[in-house]
Amino acid sequence: MQAKETLFADLVQGRAQQFQVPLYQRTYSWTEKHLKQLWSDILEQAEMLGSEEKASTHFLGSVVLAPSPRNDATFPRWLVVDGQQRLTTLSLALAAIRDHVADTKPNEAQRIDEQYLINKWNSGNDHLRLLPTQADRSQFTARIRGSLTDQDTSSGVATAYAFFRKKLVEADDPAAPQDVFRIEQAITSRLTLVAVTAERGDNVHRIFESLNNTGLKLSQADLLRNYLFMRLHTRGEHVYETYWLPLQGSLSNDELEQLMWLQLVLDGDDRVRRQDLYTAQQKRFEDLRTGESEIEEYVRELHRRGALFRRLLHPEEEPDPAVRAALRRLDAWQAAVTYPALMLLLDRRERGELDSSETARALAHIESFLVRRMICRVPTNNLNRIFQAVPGQLPRDVPVTEGLHRLLSSENRFWPDDAELRDKIRTAPFYQYGRWQQRKLVLQRLEESYEHPEPVDFAAAQLTIEHVMPQSPGDEWLRALSEEVADDETTEELHARFQHTLGNLTLTAVNAELSNHPFERKQDLLGGSHLEMNRRIAATEGWGVREILARADELADRAIALWPAPLRGVGRAERSRDWQLAHLVLAALPHGTWTSYGDLAAFLGSGAQAVGNHLANTPGVVNAYRVLTSEGKVSDGFRWATPQEAESDDVRARLAADGVRFTVTGAADPAQRLTADDLAALLADTDDDQADDEDTAQDGTMGTPGEETRAERFFRQLAADDSPETVEAVRALFTHWEALGGWIGHGAGHVTTSAYLMLGKAGGPGRGIWPMTLYPGTGRGGTAEVVFQYMAAREPFTDRALRAELLTRLNTLDGVDLPEGKLELRPNIRLSLLEKDRNRELLAETLTWFRDRWETRSTS
Predict the structure, then answer these.
(1) How far is Cα 773 from Cα 757, in angstroms, rounded to an integer?
(2) Which residues have a Cβ under 8 Å from the Cβ of 775 and sit 6 or more positions away?
(3) Which residues are CB-neighbours of 53 under 8 A, at least 6 positions away?
(4) Integer Cα distance of 523 and 34 in angstroms
(5) Which pLDDT tens digit goes with each residue over 319-374?
(6) DSSP H/E element including 536
(7) Closest CA to 207 of 227, 235, 193, 192
(8) Which of 109, 201, 758, 820 would disulfide-bridge 102, Cβ 3.0–4.6 Å?
């Protein structure tokens, strides 16, 4: 290989030649961000051309070339192994300059064309000096040849060409130093490249792999595509046009990579990781000594399965109604983890091994497996392993649907049976587990089970989850609840134990009207609902623990009928998942925190006495001694589970060593106590950014004309429970945040809405970040929730030291004392503290610091 520094003009002009982008290369993908940066560099170099100072050129990057198999002495052809994005972009920029001057300086336009863009005396594809990959060829050819009739303007090539046409109009000022021909000169003679030229016989694919190891970072799909088409010496064009191009047009690069991984899994590789896709498939081909015909068969099969995979991504493309409905539910559940099993079912159906009714029944088993585990709070950490193993472990001696049922029912799958499902519907805090859309889907399916003759259109209805007995109960609710309290429990503990259970939850579109009203007022509103479950709630005389448990039993009957049970006697392991969940959350207790028996019991859906008995009699439970009474004292009945523990230290010394502070009365600091909600947050899925039932939107004016916007709703609710001074302080906070370059996102909640202080974009690659979420009060004053837990997954605040510095800065506010243990959680600050001028100043400084840290990450 040879490497030398060159200029674009030296590389492409001169005798007739062609630079060919191979079939296996990715399509043109530069975005406006890349184009803006290049344009800035071009203008800088154009200005230098008019300066007397001798300035250095700008290094653009490398171009790696290899001789084309179709090369000949009279017309050299080069494969662009690397650098096609740069060459394509510069060619489009020159085409835009040519077209910009075509009317006023036609001779100059012709010169640019012949020097850089075309081979004047060649025809067909050979007319182009740069020949892109087939997916981009028609768009690129149209711009180089100037034939833009009926061309797609949404492609990356078209977007880049339009970008330069627009920028040239902006820059076309004869009085300015960067006139259009200086821009041309800057492109052709001020942007340097390193041209690396391979010799005939060099292993070009090894060059790809080397580039990937030194910063290019091709995706797994890119690497495998390159490998496939380099192996197709004689059939490449046919395979590309017939199978690859349609496949590439129907799936994104990420989806295509996922399909390639699924193809390996369907072939029985139940251990391959997606990040190892390329290496695993390459090894498979080379172990089998695969030739061109086998490579073509692989791509043909990928093309066939691509149509099946699209049905998982777009269930509306599935023709059978029952299968389509099941796929839609799994898609709404965000069950991508089940794709290996779903692809196997669709693949076997297409091969004739099962019909659509059997496929729908098998999909019902998968849905039940997910839903029952979620209701019964079985951790999701092993779902990837379970479903990736399905194609390789499916029994061969029984029909597919029966085999899948048997496999998911087997040992260590933990598919809850009817008894466990019924118990958890009665006792588990359903509202605190799973993702909000999953909780909503469970309630939706239960409502649909009533088969009302005029069912609700759930796609159109703006339904959210409502607590019938409210989360912040007023005096009337508490008085009624106190009549059901047992001797060993307070009213507050009884409320905490049942408020989030499924029997107390429903769906409604009138959340704001229901609010925290007494049950008699809610009865009137629920009675007029179109949902059958709401009319049944309205028909009861009162609402307390007895009614919640009775409704739980009714919903359990429906859940058991909706979601099939596992098979019995398939070697299922018997163990208590309740206590496993307790052990998990206790092990996750951050340094400097403690919890109470009542808090842990409410989190588990258990009783405080049962929790105490289990901790006292179970050796080896991590952090068991950090479970105290609600007053922060060591329980009189506490004892170490083993003599070795008892000899090691006393409880208070262990707590102090773990950062727990004590008050003058000897009680653990209540500021360090974790409630049931805090415990739930410790094990929450931090990818589920918008918790509960809200979708965050930047547009504070959402809604039809005359309808209250989300921003207006937020301030109306804030004003209902906080002073005018607090409301104005929050408005000033929002103004400061927007001046920093942030924006205010508002949740869709009606009973309690929210406001997010956002930077960047929420969701997806390069997703945004927010330091806090503001909530209006519900009788207790508004709060600002500091989202340390979500920050921990976003750069640069994955660095715990930065989160700790943020906590320290917040603690300088008068009235704020956040313990270090809350760095893993989402602690609250009262908004009323912002009435103090100094607190507003300190918070503004803290938010500016936060923005600066994030922007440093964004530009590094």
Answers:
(1) 7
(2) 752, 753, 754, 782, 783, 784, 785
(3) none
(4) 58
(5) 999 999 999 999 999 999 999 999 999 999 999 999 999 999 999 999 999 999 99
(6) helix 532-538
(7) 227
(8) 109
Helix, strand, coil percentages for the chain (3-state, nearest 5): 55, 10, 35
Name the residue among 442, 374, 458, 455 with its Cα closest to residue 414.
Answer: 374
Alpha-carbon distance 858 to 759, whole Å?
Answer: 11
Pairing of strands 58-67, 191-197: parallel
Who wins on pLDDT, 175 or 285?
Answer: 285
Report the 3 state secondary structure along 45-96.
HHHHHCCCCCCCCEEEEEEEEEECCCCCCCCCEEEEEECHHHHHHHHHHHHH
131 membership: H or E segment, kind and range:
strand 130-131
**What is the rounded distance in angstroms from the CA atom of residue 761 to the CA atom of residue 577?**
38
Query: Residue 447 — φ and ψ, nearest 5°?
Result: -65, -45
Helix (H) or strand (E) holding 535: helix 532-538
Residue 178's Cβ-side half-sphere holds a number of Cα atoms within 13 Å equal to: 19
Dihedral of the alpha carbons of 439, 443, 449, 451, in degrees to the nearest 10: -130
pLDDT in tens, 179-231: 899 999 999 999 999 888 887 656 555 665 565 544 445 678 888 887 888 78
- Residue 515 in contact with residue 521, Cβ under 8 Å? no
Cβ atoms of 443 and 383 within 8 Å: the answer is no
For the stretch 267-306, what's the b/e string if a residue is b when 16 or more beta carbons lie within 10 angstroms of its beta carbon? eebeebeeeebbebbbeebeeeeeeeeebbebbeebbebb
Q: Which two tokens stand for residue 550?
A: 């009775």
Here the tokens at position 295 are 């490579």
44's tokens? 């800088």
Distance between CA 771 and CA 829 in Å, rounded?
12
Supply the DSSP string of 719-788, one letter for each residue. Answer: HHHS-HHHHHHHHHHHHHHHHTT-EEEE---SSS--EEEEBSBSSSTTB-B-SEEEE--SSS--EEEE-H
Name every residue whose Cβ is closer than 8 Å to that of residue 538 and which is 6 or more positions away in sequence. 522, 523, 524, 526, 527, 529
Task: Determine the Cα–Cα distance for residues 374 and 438; give it in Å rounded to an integer.
Answer: 9
The neighbour count for residue 771, using CB atoms within 10 Å, is 26
d(CA 528, CA 538): 9
Residues 6+ apart with CB under 8 A from 380: 337, 373, 685
In sign, the C-alpha dihedral spanning 376, 582, 380, 411 is: negative
Residue in this structure with the two tokens 């989806």, named with its chain if needed: 255
Q: CA–CA separation, 1 vs 788, rounded Å?
A: 51
DSSP state of 626: G
Q: Which amino acid makes up residue 25?
A: Q
**More confidently predicted of 571 and 145:** 145
